[in-house]
Amino acid sequence: MSILIILFCIGLLVLLITKLKLNAFLAFLLIAILAGLLLGIEPAKITGSIQKGMGDMLGSLIIVVACGAMLGKLTADSGAAQQIASGLMKLFGERYIQWALMITGFIIGIPLFYNVGFVLVIPLIFSVAAKYKLPVVYVGLPMLAALSVTHGFLPPHPSPAALVAAFHADMGKTLMYGVLIAIPTVILAGPVFSRTLKKIKAPMLQTFKSEALPDDQLPSLSISIFSSLLPVILLALTTFLGGAVKEAGPLKTFISFISDPAIVMILALAVATYTLGLRMHMGMKRIMDIYGDAVKDIAMLLLIMGGAGSLKQILLDSGVSAEIGQILNGLDVHPLVLGWAMACLIRVCVGSATVAGLTAVGIIMPVMSRPDVNPNLMVLSIGAGSLMFSHVNDAGFWLFKEYFGLSIKDTIRSWSLMETIVAIAGLGGVMVLNAFVS
Predict the structure, then answer these.
(1) Membrane spanning segments where (predicted)?
(2) Per-residue model confidence as pLDDT tens digits over 95-114
């Protein structure tokens, strides 16, 4: 009976978000309350479970996500993203222009949230397509594939960062594994797949041409790349040092301190504040205004994460997670595939990759106690599944369709299939890594 209640609640969650257009945060709260009542939790204890779930989810995430948003906003507003794009295009030349755009998307996609990155790179895509007289979808898809993969796979992006916290995974290892999987995935979904899209015609819209900053106001290419990738560099470095230093002592304690994802993000943001802000003669007030705007942009996203954490806690406190675990453990399917499939199903129904990933956590949590489940790979498996087949219920689908001026058929042919390739290739990469990672 408990399983039927959960299925009913998840179905109602999908209905509230997709059909009734209810805000996802409010939908999660209402479903958490309803699930608690139906599952027999005392009404007086339901609010306690909701508050605990929200606190546990956000407690380890707010610093990482907020600092990540600030770094991304500064990367965009300082001209660092513009410098990375123009520098890499000069380096690769016309023949390898797709690869230049793909690498640019990957680098700036690490600090930038997807929607911000999308709007930022659109003028560049149209400008490059016009300059070299190439089909705009063919040129742009590799870059957008890179943005999508970093959004779904790599911390400190909100969904993978939340999954790391929920599964008590290691953010540094998850990031390194994620990069290993992301590179072939982006190549397959980007330059390789886009070869089949040369015949898709899209209007060369002038609307999206933006005013670029003068070259003398841009940070250097090396500083731009260094500042954008600093969270990755620090996480990788501290993860390596943590494994290299075995003996307990002051050095081990210090490494453990600076390897905490929150400390890493604070350090990265502090460095970028100087390299991309103060060093470029940007006033502190202007920098702080940028940071304030960045936090406003992610406020609702943080609330959605908290709401998802509340639903997860209700499942745990009611004991239904144990029942789900018994059922899932009885299935002859690898847990990593189960996590991926759950995220795929919710993604196709709800549309939002973030909601899909966070909702899958509460369902798949019971199998995490199995010895053959690597929590770092589970983060990536669910992250890959959360990108499966974006279609008409996903805001990203319409963003791509309207900016490129495509029909629904051509949007499915390009965008939706690209996302599907990312999801399947991501799972393939996870399973290959699982064969080598204990």
Answers:
(1) 26-46, 58-76, 96-129, 136-154, 174-197, 218-242, 254-277, 298-316, 336-365, 377-400, 420-437
(2) 899 999 999 999 999 988 78
